[in-house]
Amino acid sequence: MRLSRYFLPILKETPGEAQVVSHQLMLRAGMIRQTAAGIYAFLPLGLRVLAKIEGIVREEMDRAGAIEVLMPTIQSADLWRQSGRYEAYGPEMLRIKDRHDREMLFSPTAEELFTVIFQNGAKSYRDLPRNLYQIQWKFRDEVRPRFGLMRGREFLMKDAYSFDLDFAAAKHSYNRMFIAYMRTFARMGLDAIPMQADTGPIGGDLSHEFIVLAPTGESDVFYDEAWLAARDTSAVDADDADALEHSISGLNTDYAATDEKRDLAAEAAAGDRLKTSKGIEVGQVFYFGDKYTKAMGVTVQGSDGQPVTPLMGSYGIGVSRLLGAIIEARHDASGIVWPDAVAPFKVALINLRVDDAACLAACEGLYAELTANGVEVLYDDRDERGGPKFATADLIGLPWQLVVGPKGIANGVVELKRRATGEKTELPMADAVARLL
Ligand code: ATP
Ligand code: MG
Ligand code: MG
Ligand code: MG
């Protein structure tokens, strides 16, 4: 992408409306714009990051055996009356009337709809276990939308719903999602700690929230400092139910809980290792058994011919909130420092002298070759001085900067800078592309 033809409305000043650094940087880097309280437009750079995050979430869901679907955002009130949640949900639900005065709503979550869609397609025990998921916009009329994408009213969520025949199988489904979440957040460069959590309006008795520690988080959390050491869950075999249960209960021996679920005895046992912090909830997993299937009269035929009520769990990830959470965790005084896996482009190609024929030719050649090799490159071909170009590249936080100037070109060299460390290396122009593959 040539920056001269891109849509990247950078702001020089920090906007007064933004209180937290991730919101400030997203506005300054031209990623998002607010269109109404808690409702945002995604500009090209923001959309690219959103798509990267979505991609990682999708890969890990697919790897865990979940199957992607797409449900409508607008649902009928009658559907929600079947579970009793239409009245119970309260003012966070955006209620809408169509031209025939029929009551509709913008989905804040989708247990009811997935339950009836599942019922419609599953008839017997052979149709279970299944886990269906979507990545779809949700609306919650939050009392205090704030902090940009972190607490929006319209936000992108991945929501998955599992259906099983008995508790052992349902626990295995829950554990699969648990480990998939550990992997998902680790791939994004986040240390998300699973914490015992309250179930809120979703209901049920078993739940974990995945929390990224950050002073700007809205949750109060309590944990054993053992959690601060990195956990590698990549080798766990999720298909082996016993091995999986074993590794997860291993993880969970180290205490971690949100303030609604504090366990004072466990805290006393943790002694000096007990820490408290603010945290950002990036995901939550719930097991709630037959709460919805029973209320909505869902059964399948069991292997003995008798009807069985499927047991369910649901599993949410705040896809758009993750943009904010990642920036909160990865930034410095000059701007965003994207982890490679979610960066909107891999490299900023910076031409220091667009009026110099040799620089221009070198940049055009590098741009063509990088693009041909599938490297995502944002080419700063604008007629600008070096200073603003470096400032833009630092602000938008691409992992690499490839800098081409007249002095270097005279000696056949270019400079490669790693955004995260600031480390600069000179290298022969001919080697530059290979270093970025
Ligand atoms: P919170 O405690 O922050 O209000 P929640 O517990 O109400 O979140 P869930 O019902 O668990 O949210 O939804 C699943 C995920 O969706 C959350 O873990 C969070 O990452 C994300 N999410 C929830 N509300 C919002 C919001 N208003 N804006 C952005 N993301 C959100
Ligand atoms: Mg909430
Ligand atoms: Mg919560
Ligand atoms: Mg939650």
From TrEMBL:
<dbReference type="InterPro" id="IPR002314">
    <property type="entry name" value="aa-tRNA-synt_IIb"/>
</dbReference>
<comment type="subunit">
    <text>Homodimer.</text>
</comment>
<dbReference type="InterPro" id="IPR033730">
    <property type="entry name" value="ProRS_core_prok"/>
</dbReference>
<keyword id="KW-0030">Aminoacyl-tRNA synthetase</keyword>
<dbReference type="GO" id="GO:0006433">
    <property type="term" value="P:prolyl-tRNA aminoacylation"/>
</dbReference>
<protein>
    <recommendedName>
        <fullName>Proline--tRNA ligase</fullName>
        <ecNumber>6.1.1.15</ecNumber>
    </recommendedName>
</protein>
<comment type="similarity">
    <text>Belongs to the class-II aminoacyl-tRNA synthetase family. ProS type 2 subfamily.</text>
</comment>
<dbReference type="GO" id="GO:0005829">
    <property type="term" value="C:cytosol"/>
</dbReference>
<dbReference type="InterPro" id="IPR006195">
    <property type="entry name" value="aa-tRNA-synth_II"/>
</dbReference>
<keyword id="KW-0067">ATP-binding</keyword>
<dbReference type="InterPro" id="IPR050062">
    <property type="entry name" value="Pro-tRNA_synthetase"/>
</dbReference>
<dbReference type="InterPro" id="IPR023716">
    <property type="entry name" value="Prolyl-tRNA_ligase_IIa_type2"/>
</dbReference>
<dbReference type="GO" id="GO:0004827">
    <property type="term" value="F:proline-tRNA ligase activity"/>
</dbReference>
<dbReference type="Pfam" id="PF00587">
    <property type="entry name" value="tRNA-synt_2b"/>
</dbReference>
<keyword id="KW-0547">Nucleotide-binding</keyword>
<dbReference type="GO" id="GO:0005524">
    <property type="term" value="F:ATP binding"/>
</dbReference>
<dbReference type="InterPro" id="IPR004500">
    <property type="entry name" value="Pro-tRNA-synth_IIa_bac-type"/>
</dbReference>
<dbReference type="InterPro" id="IPR036621">
    <property type="entry name" value="Anticodon-bd_dom_sf"/>
</dbReference>
<dbReference type="InterPro" id="IPR002316">
    <property type="entry name" value="Pro-tRNA-ligase_IIa"/>
</dbReference>
<feature type="domain" description="Aminoacyl-transfer RNA synthetases class-II family profile">
    <location>
        <begin position="38"/>
        <end position="339"/>
    </location>
</feature>
<keyword id="KW-0648">Protein biosynthesis</keyword>
<dbReference type="InterPro" id="IPR044140">
    <property type="entry name" value="ProRS_anticodon_short"/>
</dbReference>
<comment type="function">
    <text>Catalyzes the attachment of proline to tRNA(Pro) in a two-step reaction: proline is first activated by ATP to form Pro-AMP and then transferred to the acceptor end of tRNA(Pro).</text>
</comment>
<keyword id="KW-0963">Cytoplasm</keyword>
<keyword id="KW-0436">Ligase</keyword>
<dbReference type="InterPro" id="IPR045864">
    <property type="entry name" value="aa-tRNA-synth_II/BPL/LPL"/>
</dbReference>
<dbReference type="InterPro" id="IPR004154">
    <property type="entry name" value="Anticodon-bd"/>
</dbReference>
<dbReference type="Pfam" id="PF03129">
    <property type="entry name" value="HGTP_anticodon"/>
</dbReference>
